[in-house]
């Protein structure tokens, strides 16, 4: 099975950006942990991060054969109808992950354009949300 791990804008700054909200782990640390988990079940994980909406959409379009996706869209969750349309069009089931509790933050963060089409949503569990998403996917795939 092929799984995608997609991270949106500013998530490349994890470990440095507002550690009181996002923690100390870097995106590379997270990618390594999730990769090990999927590889231990003989699944391939392809990691991608971009600060550009179009690059994320192109990545999805170029990986339509994927079996599942974990996506932390960052700020794009609250603004991007195009990303939502790409996820619908790709028809790859996905888990939406947010490190912080977006519902306890500024009002504009309370709405996600992706949540209603996600297979699941993990919010406010810190970077452990990525591992939780991976474990959920493994269960759903019967691994």
Instruction: Just give the CATH class.
Output: Alpha Beta
Question: How do the SSEs run, as a string of H and E?
Answer: EHHEHEHEEH
Which spans of ≥5 residues are poorly predicted at pLDDT below 50? none
CATH topology group:
Rossmann fold
| Beta-strand content estimate | 15-25%
Describe the biggest sheet? 5 strands, parallel
Instruction: Name the CATH homologous superfamily.
Output: Dehydroquinase, class II
Distance between the termini: 10 Å
Helix content: 25-40%
* Rg over alpha carbons: 14 Å
β-strand number: 5
- Total number of distinct structural domains: 1
**Within the largest sheet, what's the order of strands?**
2-1-3-4-5
Structural class: alpha/beta
> Whole-number average pLDDT?
93
How many alpha or pi helices?
A: 5
So, CATH architecture? 3-Layer(aba) Sandwich
Which of globular, elongated, flat, extended, rod-shaped describes the shape? globular
Can you describe this structure?
With 143 residues, the protein is α/β, with parallel strands linked by helices. It has one domain: Dehydroquinase, class II (Rossmann fold). It is 35% helix and 18% strand. It has five helices and five strands. It has helices at residues 19-22, 27-39, 53-61, 81-90, 128-141; strands at residues 2-7, 44-49, 68-72, 94-98, 120-123. A five-stranded parallel sheet has the order 2-1-3-4-5, with helices on one face. Strand 3, helix 4 (81-90) and strand 4 form a beta-alpha-beta unit. Helix 2 runs parallel beside helix 5 (128-141) and helix 3 (53-61) packs parallel to helix 4 (81-90). The longest helix has 14 residues, at 128-141. The model has no long low-confidence stretch (mean pLDDT 93).
């Amino acid at each position: 099975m092929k799984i995608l791990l997609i991270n949106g804008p500013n998530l490349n700054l994890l470990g440095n950006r507002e550690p009181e909200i996002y923690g100390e782990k870097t995106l590379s640390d997270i990618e390594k942990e999730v990769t090990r988990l999927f590889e231990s079940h003989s699944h391939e994980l392809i990691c991608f991060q971009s600060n550009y909406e179009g690059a994320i959409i192109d990545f999805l379009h170029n990986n339509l054969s994927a079996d599942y996706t974990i996506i932390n869209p960052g700020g794009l969750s609250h603004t991007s109808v195009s990303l939502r349309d790409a996820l619908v069009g790709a028809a790859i089931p996905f888990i939406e992950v947010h490190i912080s509790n977006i519902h306890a933050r500024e009002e504009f963060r309370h709405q996600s354009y992706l949540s209603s089409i996600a297979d699941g949503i993990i919010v406010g569990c810190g970077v452990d949300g990525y591992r939780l998403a991976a474990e959920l996917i493994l269960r759903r795939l019967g691994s």
